[in-house]
Amino acid sequence: MLRSFKALPDAPVADRRPAAFRVHGVELRDDYAWLRAPNWQEAMREPERLPSDIAAYLTAENAYYKTAMADTAALQQRLIEEMRGRIKEDDSSAPRLHGPYAYASRYAEGAEYPVLVRTPEEGGAEQVLLDVNAEAAAQEYFQLGQSRISPDHRTLAWTADVNGSEFHRLSFRDVETGRDLGYRIEDVASVAWADAHTLFYVRVDARHHPSKVYRHRLGSDPAEDVLVYTESDTRYGVHVQRLRSGGFVAISTGMNDENEIHVISTHDPEAAPRVIEPRTKGLEYEIEQQGDAFLILTNADEAFDFKVMTAPVATPSRAHWAEILPHEPGRMIVSLAAHENWTIWLERRDALPRICHLRRGRPLSETRAIAFGEEAYALGTDPSPDYDTDRFRFTYSSPTTPPQVYDYDLSSGERVLRKTTEIPSGHDPADYVTRRITARSHDGAMVPVTILHHRDTALDGTAPCLLYGYGSYGVSCPPAFSANRLSLVDRGFVYAIAHVRGGEELGRKWYEAAKFEGKPNTFLDAIAAAEALVAEGCTASGRIVVQGGSAGGLLVGAVLNMRPGLWAGAIADVPFVDVLATILDDSLPLTPGEWSQWGNPIESRAAFEQIRGYSPYDNVAAQAYPPILVTAGVSDPRVTYWEPAKWVARLRATKTDDNILMLRTNMTSGHFGRSGRFAALEDAARSQAFALKATGTDPETA
User: Fold this and answer.
1) Going from the N-terminus, what domains does the chain have, and what CATH number goes with each?
2) Which of 38, 289, 559, 639 is spaced 20 to 30 Å from 120 by Cα?
């Protein structure tokens, strides 16, 4: 057994190039600010343009990582083979009826990417819409973005990111010929068809801000496209979508906790956008059309867990909103879908979801619900793209149950299982145990914790544990199935998800309690979850690896500063750790929209001090830290590469232990790591090998 995971000699040492600036009379010193490239926007699109000194440092860190993890190479390969063995290589999705066709995606054996296909509803030969493998063949990185079929089913609008920067290019494929039209539109964020020849799209600017909506006529020169909407508020991002009814294209613009929607009739796509309700501080709403009315999911009038309203299409402003599904504290309405005769919503109570549906015009007492009996599970709604239908699709999984796809008849309540994800190497749910416990946090809040372990794992305090958390933006962590994590669980790990404040598992107030001055609740909840796992005998202090990515990486960085001795190790994936500097910089792509989460430290001294109090980079201390693995991506527009790079540099220069600290930067991709269903397994294997080594499992026998 390995007793420790120690640093190697000659770890990279970043140059110290002192810089200082003053905010609210406070001098902030930063020896590593130089790691932010002056041409970072160019480098995001073309990573090879990164300045040589920065590229040299990141390359040295990558080489150090490779050497430090060399003794896990065989283990990582075994893990990849195990994970790949759980993937059905010649897989396909359950066909989905849409208009006169059944649409699906399928994978060929060995293929990294899907092929989008369709067949006539009455049967017939399969038609290939888009072979993503062929499009990706010449690219080191390739990620399909949106794919939208035109209303006449003749043209596929599809977007792709070819370097991880999330600057997507839009192409148009003639379905009959199988060839794209002879032009592309660059830097497109979202698209929506109005009719068979007219499409709206959003473009992002150089700062990656989606701010302009254009109208395009199929086959015309994009230089002639008409600008129909511009968002001047840098806090707001813009998105377009075609409503399921087909009657309108919606232009949604907003930030995390506030938005505004304009609509354009698809029968008159050249008309000016018409606002539903002007932006109001704190007001959120989403819309669906049903007949001559809009259905509106909203938090208006302090409906913090949301309610559903209706308003005439002709006069949709808030003055005409009427309630049809009231607000109920503790019952979070997560999403809303409308068909011609049905209203469907996903709601969550006590961190567990259920799907409800009601026939149009019927009283609420006739609402039906779809629920399941496991202690922890995940539901996903996948409404039909058709408006006039009684069919509804949803997915179900749990930590022990692979994903299942159901078609549901809204009239009869009949539930038909269309697909169960196959695990070719074998999977018996009875071999695993899923539990839900609660942890009492520092202020008495009861934090749900989902646990997965093998039935043969002894819960006597000896098992290693991987604890995952996120806790920001109202994003919940559903207890869904993951075939990859079984490799850890089969090796005796307890896998746990801490449903900390900042998510919405327990409703909107669970999220609101971790904003602004409440943000430390996220970190204290994660610590409480770890302590509860110890108290339950699931693991022991010093046997827990904590993991999180992006804003979950903020959680990791904060709990490392606060309770370093609690952890056996930490995995921080593209971590948001230089919080103060980022939220002070309104030139960065996402910063203005973030002020509704953290506060605006530029204008507010109180927000400045609050963020400064927990920002991981600003609170690195001369203390012992556990082994740490950090990842980054040069093309990442969400958490820019220099945040994790600066954090690692300061940690290495400050901490007092001799435990390993590694930074692995993907020099050719962004926030989501490598693309392709098999290539991505390398990222998972790397993390698991680190967790095994950090907890003292011998890589030769694992």
Assistant:
1) 20-84+426-694 (3.40.50.1820), 139-270 (2.130.10.120)
2) 289
Q: Which residues are registered as beta bridge partners of 336?
A: 345
Distance CA 212, CA 189 (A): 10
Dist. CA 519–CA 402, nearest whole Å: 34
446 Cβ contact list (under 8 Å, min separation 6):
438, 439, 440
Q: Pairing between strand 143-149 and 127-131?
A: unpaired
Name residues of the chain where pLDDT drops below 70: 1-3, 669-675, 698-702
User: Radius of gyration of the chain from Cα atoms?
Assistant: 25
Residues catalogued as catalytic? 550, 636, 671
**Cα–Cα distance between 497 and 492 in angstroms, integer?**
16
- pLDDT value for 589: 75
Confidence (pLDDT) at 270: 97
The predicted pLDDT at position 672 comes to 56
Locus of tokens 């669980």 = 489
CB 595: neighbour CB atoms within 10 A? 20
The Cα 501–Cα 235 span in angstroms is: 24
Tell me if residue 195 falls in helix, strand or coil: strand
- How far is Cα 33 from Cα 14, in angstroms, rounded to an integer? 11
Q: 669-681: b or e for each residue (b if 16 or more CB lie within 10 Å)?
A: bbbbbbbbebebb
Beta bridge partners of 147: 158
pTM above 0.85, yes or no: yes
Q: Give the tokens for residue 334.
A: 């997560």
pLDDT at res. 371 = 78
pLDDT tens-digit profile of 445-488? 999 999 999 999 999 999 999 999 999 999 999 999 999 999 99
Quick one: which of 128, 156, 131 has its CA closest to 142?
131
